[in-house]
Amino acid sequence: MRAVLHVISDRQRKPVPLLDVLTQAAEGGADVIQIREKKAPAIETYQLCTSLKEKLSQMDRTPQLFVNDRVDVAMAVCADGVHLASRSLPPGVVKTVTKQSSWHGLVGVSVHSVEEAKLAAAAGVDYVTFGHIFASESHQGEPPRGLLALERVVGAVDIPVIAIGGIDVHNVGPVLDTGCSGVAVIGAVLHHANPRYATERLKEEMDKARTKPRFAFPVGTVNAIGEFL
After folding, report:
1. Domain residue limits, the chain
2. Are 64 and 30 in contact (CB under 8 A)?
3. φ/ψ of residue 38, rounded to 5
């Protein structure tokens, strides 16, 4: 059982060429590419997703494609999952919608405490993302929650926990020692001059982890009618 690497897009922090950067991250071994376009119109997010899916389909090893917040876009492009934030639809509502539709992608949610993680797990989500673990550009001025808080969340829920926030090749080892199921990064890949190399280096360090994940991150591909292959 190996920890997984999520690479998250952020057009504000890497304006152009975002598609090329994400493609390189996939080539470098990213397990999940998450499209997070908070301020973009739905059509632009849809177009980015479809363009990236075309790129990914040409690879021997295809990472999962997730869409942040936009359940409609995730369903429209038949993504492998959707990731919910605090201002997204409630996870319980999204799980109900997916059960009633032909799309059965994974549903994850961002949490910031043990209590929030437990509520998300009770709502039936497939995984949670917890952070920020270290100081992060995405949360300037906010104190990091740290490894002990991450370890508590990992032990509190019976679903995979993905760590996020300030994680890079220098500190990913101690993060994985908590038993989390993987890490999510933005700057560690998007800010690097060679995103493919940055992703490969992260994966190399992750493979050195001494602790196995408490839970394996779910994998699978959703086909055109929403079934896992």
Report:
1. 4-207
2. no
3. -60, -35
Domain 4-207 has CATH 3.40.50.300: no
Contact 202, 188 (CB under 8 A): yes
**CB-count burial class (<10 Å; 0-12, 13-18, 19+) for 222:** buried
Alpha-carbon torsion (29, 108, 70, 16), positive or negative: negative
3-state SS, residue 206 = helix
Burial class (CB in 10 A: 0-12, 13-18, 19+), 89: middle
> pLDDT (tens digit, 9 = 90+) per residue, 112-132?
999 999 999 999 999 999 999
pTM (2 d.p.): 0.92
Residue type, 113: S
